[in-house]
Write a structure and sequence with these properties.
Largest sheet: 4 strands, mixed
Number of helices: 8
Number of strands: 7
Oligomer: single chain
Radius of gyration: 27 Å
Structural class: alpha/beta
Number of domains: 1
Helix content: 40-55%
Distance between the termini: 63 Å
């Protein structure tokens, strides 16, 4: 992944040519600089809701991870946390229109709320809520929840810093509809993808949490109840499959 510095540089190179240029009417420029309200960039972080789900067994969770290309070889997914970055954008312009030329000048007021979508924590249905394995798996998954919140919070702060630095108190000139479209494009096509890439760096933290050592630890915590429970469920599934095969064979006889 690219470093923060490279991401910021790429964004600035992309956005800078889109900036409005000053009007040639010096009197109008001075009026804009003096009378327009200051640019206002407001970025907030909103913590996400956490929901617990035991509707899927470990085979189904493992299949989900495999489909996403995240499954470790021959490993069983005991729990899984799903979350995405949520970005809510709104803005308006404070502007002045020149009575003589019809040209406009504006400064934006931008509000952004960052957070995570509902963080769904899945725990294999083989484990009851009052069991030691369930509590162990939940504790592990809550580390992923915390990582998501931390990186979303940090992304919000970095976004605010970079946007305040770039927009500063600059004045945009031109047709008011064109200025509004320009701000919209910057927010949706430049800043929003950038902050999503920044949040994506959390994947490395998730990989650190799901370390080989952590996988090994699940084999002996709770006095080895986790592998024992999985073996028990596997034997039950095998028995059901055998009974189904026998039933189908008997039914198929003339």
């Amino acid at each position: 992944m690219r470093s923060k510095c490279l991401l910021v540089t790429a964004l600035i190179m992309l956005v800078m040519p889109k900036h409005g240029y000053a009007s040639t009417n010096n009197e109008f420029n001075i009026k804009c600089e003096i009378h327009l309200p200051d640019t206002n960039i407001n970025v907030n972080f909103k913590p996400g809701v956490v929901s617990l789900d035991s509707s899927k067994n470990t085979m189904e969770l493992s299949a989900t991870q495999s489909n996403n290309g995240l499954q470790r070889d021959r490993s069983t997914t005991l729990g899984l946390t799903k979350a995405e970055l949520s970005v809510s954008l709104s803005w308006h312009l404070n502007y002045i229109i020149d009575d003589h030329s019809g040209s406009s000048c504006a400064r934006p007021v931008i509000s952004i709320t960052l957070g995570t979508t509902t963080q769904r924590v899945f725990i294999g249905s083989e484990f009851s809520e009052d069991s030691c394995p369930y509590k162990f798996i939940l504790e592990h998954e809550l580390r992923h929840v915390s990582a998501n919140e931390l990186y979303a919070r940090q992304a919000a702060q970095k976004l605010k810093t970079q946007m305040q630095r770039w927009y500063a108190n600059r004045v945009f000139y031109g047709d008011i509809d064109a200025i509004n479209t320009k701000i919209s494009n910057q927010l949706n096509n430049d800043w929003s993808p950038w902050v999503h890439r920044l949040f994506g760096l959390v994947q490395q933290e998730h990989a650190n949490i799901d370390s080989p050592q952590e996988y090994k630890r699940s084999n002996y915590v709770c006095e080895g109840q986790i592998p024992a429970r999985l073996r028990q469920e596997r034997l039950k599934r095998n028995a059901r499959q055998v009974r189904q095969m026998i039933s189908q064979h008997i039914t198929a006889k003339p």
